[in-house]
Write a structure and sequence with these properties.
The protein is α/β, with parallel strands linked by helices. It has 8 helices and 7 strands; from the N terminus they run αααααββαβββββαα. The strands form 2 sheets. The protein has a 5-stranded mixed sheet, with no helix packed on it. Strands 6-7 form a two-stranded antiparallel sheet. Strand 4 and strand 5 (about 150-155) form a beta hairpin. The longest helix has 12 residues, at about 60-70. The model has no long low-confidence stretch (mean pLDDT about 95).
């Protein structure tokens, strides 16, 4: 994904949260993010890693143990960097034209909005908040929707893109690193969704080699890819 991004002519990069918790390489992920030098918002799993407080989501003891393990993998410098994530990031393109980035909604990292919502329900968290583009994450799903004279964009997930059209008890991850390119000028808005394939077998191998507790739970979203090239 970073190689694909590097081949694009972009002015700014913003990360929308959930950077290091529940994966096999929390330190490496934060080091990459720090090297990018871009602003990052505090996701609900970022907050969970730091505080062990799940917020509005249900949690299991296995998730708590994995969060403690993730903490143990981070140096004091990386923990301090992690604590520096902010609830929202605002980027001004031109006078009166801006992008507001957050994790769930502008008012909560835990709040969910999705394409299944009716119009009134979808618009309510954004009422009275000025922005040309609203950029949120949280649901690990690429989608966009008009919001009056503004637009909402969810770029998906680089590390855990979820198949939202599946049936079954456990979520399945797609083997793509997802992000979005947003272009705004004086008259127009454009969003391009990018999905960069990667080897899911390598993710499973990294989980199994990491030493993290409950590797079977961490690997579960990827197991339907078992046998794919590494």
């Amino acid at each position: 994904m970073l190689a694909d991004l590097g081949a694009r002519d972009v002015d700014h990069v913003i990360c929308l949260g959930d950077h290091a918790q529940a994966g096999p390489q929390p330190a490496e992920c934060l080091e990459l993010l720090r090297d990018l030098g871009c602003p990052a918002v505090m996701g609900n799993s970022d907050h969970f890693l730091l505080t062990l407080d799940p917020g509005e989501e249900e949690f299991t003891e296995a998730q708590v143990e994995n969060a403690r393990w993730s903490q143990s993998q981070l140096s004091d410098d990386l923990l301090a960097f992690h604590r520096g994530f902010v609830p929202t990031v605002e980027l001004e393109f031109a006078p009166g034209r801006s992008l507001l980035a957050f994790h769930g909604t502008p008012r909560s990292r835990d709040e969910i909005v999705g394409p299944w919502m009716d119009e009134e329900q979808f618009r309510e968290p954004f009422d009275g908040v000025p922005a040309t583009v609203f950029a949120g994450g949280h649901t690990h799903q690429q989608w966009a929707r008009r919001l009056g004279d503004s637009y909402y964009v969810n770029p998906g997930s680089v590390g855990l893109p979820l198949d939202r059209h599946q049936t079954g008890e456990h979520p399945r991850a797609d083997a793509y690193a997802e992000y979005a390119l947003v272009t705004v000028d004086d008259v127009a808005f454009e969003v391009e969704f990018r999905r960069i394939p990667f080897a899911p077998g390598a993710v499973i191998d990294a989980i199994e080699a990491s030493g993290m507790p409950h590797p079977e739970e961490a690997a579960r979203p990827w197991l339907h890819h078992r046998g794919s090239p590494t």
